[in-house]
Amino acid sequence: MSNIPPSQSPLSRPPPSSPNSRPMQATDPNQQIQRGPSPYQSTPLGPAQSGIRPNVPPAFRPGNFQQTPSGRPLSYPNQTAMSPTYQVMPANSTSPPAVENLESPSQRSDTPPSTSHKPKRLYPKEITEAYTESNTYGGQYQPFNPAVAPGGIGQQVQPPAIDQNAYQQPQFFTPAGDQNYQATAPSMTPAHYSQQYNTQQYNTQQYNTQQYNTQQPSMNASMGGLTNQLNNMNLGGHSQTQLINVNLIGVPPNVGDLDAPPPPINLPPNSSVTQSDKANCEPSYKRCTFNSVPATASLLSKSRLPFGLIITPYRSLKEGDEPVPVVTDTVIARCRRCRTYINPFVNFVEGGQKWRCNLCFLLNEVPSQFDWDLQTSQQANRWKRAELNHAVVEFVAPTEYMVRPPQPPVYLFVIDVSFPAVQSGAVATAAKTILESLDRIPNEENRTKVGFITVDTSLHFYSLNSNSSEPQMLVVSDLEDVFLPQPDDLLVNLTEARSVVESLLSRLGDMFKDTHTVGNALGSALLAGFKLISSIGGKIVVLQSSLPNIGPGQLKAREDSKALGTPKESALLQSAEPFYKKFAVDCSRSQVCVDMFLLGSQYSDVATLSCCPRYTGGQTYFYPAFNAGRSEDALKFAHEFAEFLASPIALEAVMRVRASKGLRMTSFYGNFFVRQTDLLALPNVSRDHSYAIEVSIEENITTPTVCFQTALLHTTCFGERRIRVLTLSLPVTNSISELYSSADQIAISTLLANKAVERSLSSKLEDARDALTNKLIDILGVYKSAITGSQGASPQLQTCENLKLLPLLALGLLKHVGLRASSQIPTDLRSYAMCLLTTMPSQLLIPYIHPRFYSLHNMPIDAGTYGPDGIIMPPSLNLSSEKLERHGAYLLEDGQNIFIWLGRQVVPQLCMDLLNVRSYEEVRSGKVTLLQLDNPFSQQVNAIIGKTRESRRGVYYPHLYIVKEDGGDPSLRLWFLSHIIEDRTDTVMSYQQWLGHLKDKVNSGSF
Ligand SMILES: [Zn+2]
User: Fold this and answer.
1) Which of 211, 455, 743, 987 could anchor a disulfide with 207, C-beta 3.0 to 4.6 Å?
2) Which of 92-96, 245-249, 612-616, 931-935 has the lowest mean pLDDT?
3) Domain total for the chain?
4) Do 373 and 505 belong together in one domain?
5) Locate the Sec23/Sec24 trunk domain: which residues (predicted)?
6) C-alpha 387 to ligand 1 mean position (Å)
7) Phi–psi pair at 491, nearest 5 degrees
8) Mean confidence (pLDDT) of the chain
9) Which position has the higher pLDDT, 289 or 207?
């Protein structure tokens, strides 16, 4: 600790009686985990490491740090400016809890507000009466006017590896590659694409401008465009309920349909009490694996289709999206028996004085205030109430939904300041990003609190007294029995302490610049952070650049390259250390969420550290081989971190899904902790996180429709307790054909991705792949036998129109970096991919498993220009190397990375227009920031990339790589080609081979 004055001595710890001294021991981490067989078995650790263990190789040298992206010289006052304010802390100096007289965290967590509909304490009299049986306001009803609402395998292609030499190659983070990719790799176009380019004027056979194509119009592109147009004509037109048979073999999959909506939900007439077109749930909030629910368990079983819900309750609003309507009068009508919220699918009876619950069919009184406008004190029109018109609605919750006043947003930053963290520029970039984001952090009520802990082999706290202009650093070296230093201004109001917070952040990047301390005590820092905020709840934001290797939760660099691709690989994908899960469970009880930003230059043990976000509703972000000296690295991290800080969050949340009688929620996938069988605890609800829930049929369903209602009780950033309710009503069917014709291939793929990850962790990757393959065989086999009635061997493989992309998406999963068979994929990358596969909403997930692929050299003239709906995108191409023409330029993106592929005979003019170099030979491959050049082509491509980055939900800001067909980095080329999933590699089937394999299995099986 070169930055600590010699006089600084480790602080003594408080006496054992300190109420905060041992928060970890009263908990049982195994309690009520409902994730199926736990994948998070601990593996025995070796002897505890006794101290600081350098984990930085000799090649890791200071040097690039000065080139941080700030662009300004790092002239912050260094730590000597802080020295005068250092102080040695007295012993016995735990902070008092910030909020007194609250129920203990465990008491809180055991009494989920959404279900404990207890006698009201602070409830207005009228509303209390509204919940009672007697209806004293009955005479005020308008004449009852029921609204009539008619109709109302063995993939060897190389992933982005953590190259052991990455930090020795400052220019690019390049994925290593094994050399097994033989593939149908770029099928070379015939000789007529030879060098006859007129480089001054790109050829104009079909399009007037921007045609880099040479001899002839690309039939593929134009056919693709035509097909897409036809598809677009069909959008929304899936109104047929009849099955449409589709032959799969020999036909390229129509990837333009990946954006098509799911089959329509055909409810019986008058299902909804209003005629609102918002009465049923949008798929972006909640979708089911089929839009007709089987009436019996035997029909479900016979169909072999998975039954599940994909829920994204807190999705972001893009331009043009309608905000969720809010019911502000705190009149919340719920079923007395099953606690369902009143919704568009209930029935009003007895002159409108009662409503029949559409989940359990109990008759309930309509609340007396239901037809009353509190603001005007006049009768109101019931049929205008938002909860009867909108499937997605938010109620302002009265006090009975609170166990304490709404808590403020809290951001406690735990920042690794050991040598690798400082060296890579992570500390400076993080500090600068936080500083620049202070106005964007949710703080509408000026209640938001912030705090900072920096950690290497000691913990450093910062006293941020708003009356002081300078922050004070307080150092604690006792890592085993963590305590908080005395001042209680370690966690401060952001608005009041703004200047001292700014002062700290402007110095932080430079404060440790001369450190040589190698070693990190993340576990101790987390325990300290927990003590600091557990009485309020909030977010612990971890910025970690090295493997925690001392104190509680210390980890080893356990990656074993020999285990990759073998059954032993699964152990590496599981948590190495029970500390983090146990800590996360404690956090969940105290409404503390942990988000992990992992910026390690080496093995980071994503598998273990991601446990904290997984059980607390947070997220893991991973920046392998991060080096802020590369502007692309700094830009990506700063952008994503800033968006993360600016995102609205929901606090102190619980979520429950209720369903009609006979249906039961059985398995839950996503980042949360399961309490009380089916109550999901979410200390924070992250924006755009998705959750998958499997459903079983326990009893035969005798009603024409069923309903799923999700209730998310949460506190907004601006201090309001709210309940977001999402209601999805679906028809019931006894027909297997109807079941199949209503199946949603996007929802099915999303659920299967979640199940595959779960299986990989609880068993083996191979088992997960087999299970996925078998599920496809089952579904296609049932289709053949039960729906087409075909017997015996068939030369064709059929499915229905609405499931025709399911085999392609399954193949995408089998070839995905998270799941594919390979001995070359670093564990961290697999683990991170699994984090994404289980949290992304379908809108992000589908491109992640089936990237989007565009041709640039011959794109339509209006691609990349503004149209009525924003930037016009080129038509999507099939992920087949047949599309790769030698003179072509292509863009491929999966939401995490963007690649521009340049064929070896790309015309020089294109190189000039796009990259400002004279020829293909001068193009440098690797991670780049694309230039904005003064020509239409550059502007169009930049616009397409900009649209790609913006159109995805979530904070992700993909890297951009230039890939050359030859020359350049071979591993980068292989990484790119690993996304071309319709191709065959030497060990993995092509799409058509995959279909042939499925067909053989279907022909030989019995279904
Ligand atoms: Zn009910």
Assistant:
1) 211
2) 92-96
3) 4
4) no
5) 406-643
6) 16
7) -125, 115
8) 80
9) 289
348 CA from centroid of ligand 1 (Å): 14
Q: Classify residue 394: in a domain, yes or no.
A: no
DSSP of 156-179: --------TTGGG-TT-------S
CATH number at residue 907: 3.40.20.10
pLDDT for position 722 = 97
Partners of 310 in the beta sheet? 287, 692
Mind listing the pLDDT tens digit for each residue in 61-103? 333 333 333 333 322 223 323 332 333 333 333 333 222 232 3
Phi, psi dihedral angles at 654 (to 5 degrees): -130, 145
Model pLDDT for residues 750-759, shown as the tens digit of each residue: 999 999 999 9
Q: Are residues 92 and 162 in the same domain?
A: yes
Distance 659 CA to ligand 1 centre (A): 10
pLDDT (average), residues 973-985: 93
> 3-state class of 448 per DSSP?
coil
Distance 438 CA to ligand 1 centre (A): 45
Amino acid at 670: G
The residue count for the chain:
1007
User: 541 and 429 in one domain?
Assistant: yes
Distance of CA 664 from the midpoint of ligand 1 (Å): 15
End-to-end CA distance of the chain: give it in Å, rounded: 68
The whole-angstrom separation of Cα 683 and Cα 916 is: 49
Query: What is the Å distance from ligand 1's center to 364 Cα?
Result: 8
| pLDDT reported for residue 52 | 34
Dist. CA 386 → ligand 1 center (Å): 20
- Is 962 a domain residue? yes
Residues 450 and 339 in one domain: no
Q: Say which residue the tokens 């709906």 belong to.
A: 869
Rounded mean pLDDT of 496-524?
A: 95
Distance of CA 359 from the midpoint of ligand 1 (Å): 5
- Cα–Cα distance for residue pair 6/2, rounded to 1 Å: 9
β-bridge mates for residue 453, sequence order? 414, 461
**pLDDT confidence of 168, banded at 50, 70, 90?**
very low
Range of the domain at 71: 6-222
Compute, in angstroms, the gap from residue 340 CA to the centroid of ligand 1: 5
What SS3 state is found at 503?
Answer: helix
| Ligand 1 centroid, distance to 344 Cα (angstroms) | 14
Q: Verify that 436 and 510 share a domain, yes or no.
A: yes
Are 970 and 874 contained in the same domain?
yes
